[in-house]
């Protein structure tokens, strides 16, 4: 799964809702107390969704450093599976701190992948009692991980529909505004640049306002498309204006002077941008 999209756990709504619907079925079928889905982060595994039948063993949001998790053993296994009847007696898992913390014995986990085959996380079950899982049980859990993979893809597609949108709004003749929302990676940068330049040509735009109030900064870097877009607009004879600079964006520009070095005109709001070019926004009473 591409890190470029960087969805938060809360944005995997289909996966969350789908896993919740499946967990009780899994619990009854495998006779276990707990079933859960984890998501693999840069250095940790975090429980995205969980079900606990008689007692809470794994809460949602529970996070453990990757090297100390059962998930590492699942993902690194050539069969993408790890199972043991008793975690406290297994040579490897008995040494993990998380085993003492959770106080569980029976465990089965399989790797959860997205539709491209990249590791998303794991689908696991566990119980206080010793549990021996059959090959049929393992195959059953793998089949359900395939269903959840479709839900991951659905969440990605839903996010990408918004992610790739370039909402240019005409304000008046020759003046338009683009509000850049969310994360801007290299792929989206190309889409924004090409779409804006073509739009300005087709609509004879002379002033283009770029609003950054919804921009999410990724990896402490302002997206290069901001400077590329401003320079390209100038070459085309279009005046670029930037509004909506948040404190976070301002702090980033202090470090790299990306916007400052281009001497781009900046204002605080759309209203000020319109005033700068000789227009005013007035309220019409009905």
UniProtKB/TrEMBL annotation:
A Pfam family annotated for this UniProt entry: GAF_2
Protein name stated in the entry: GAF domain-containing protein
Domain STAS: start-end pairs: 174-277
Native source organism of the sequence: Jeotgalibacillus terrae
UniProt superkingdom: Bacteria
SUPFAM superfamilies: GAF domain-like, SpoIIaa-like
CDD domains: STAS_RsbR_RsbS_like
């Amino acid at each position: 799964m591409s890190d470029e999209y960087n969805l938060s756990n809360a944005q995997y709504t289909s996966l969350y809702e789908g896993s919740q619907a499946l967990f009780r079925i899994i619990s009854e079928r495998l006779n276990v107390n707990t079933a859960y889905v984890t998501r693999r982060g840069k250095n940790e595994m975090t429980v995205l969704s969980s079900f606990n039948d008689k007692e809470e063993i794994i809460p949602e949001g529970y996070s453990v450093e990757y090297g100390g998790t059962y998930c590492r053993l699942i993902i690194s296994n050539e069969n993408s599976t790890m199972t043991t009847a008793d975690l406290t007696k297994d040579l490897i898992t008995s040494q993990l701190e998380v085993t003492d913390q959770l106080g569980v014995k029976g465990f089965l986990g399989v790797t959860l992948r997205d539709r491209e085959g990249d590791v998303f996380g794991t689908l696991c079950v566990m119980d206080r009692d010793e549990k021996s899982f059959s090959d049929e049980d393992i195959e059953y859990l793998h089949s359900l991980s395939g269903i959840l993979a479709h839900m991951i893809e659905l969440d990605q597609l839903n996010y990408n529909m918004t992610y790739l949108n370039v909402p240019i709004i005409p304000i008046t003749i020759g003046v338009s505004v683009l509000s850049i929302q969310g994360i801007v990676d290299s792929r989206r940068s190309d889409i924004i640049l090409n779409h804006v330049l073509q739009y300005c040509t087709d609509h004879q735009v002379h002033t283009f306002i770029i609003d950054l109030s919804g921009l999410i900064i990724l990896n402490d870097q302002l997206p290069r498309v901001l400077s590329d877009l401003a320079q390209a607009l100038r070459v085309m004879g279009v005046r670029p204006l930037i509004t909506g600079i948040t404190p976070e964006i301002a702090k980033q520009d202090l470090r790299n002077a990306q916007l400052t070095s281009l001497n781009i005109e900046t204002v605080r709001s759309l209203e000020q941008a319109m005033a700068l070019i000789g227009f005013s926004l007035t309220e019409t009473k009905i």
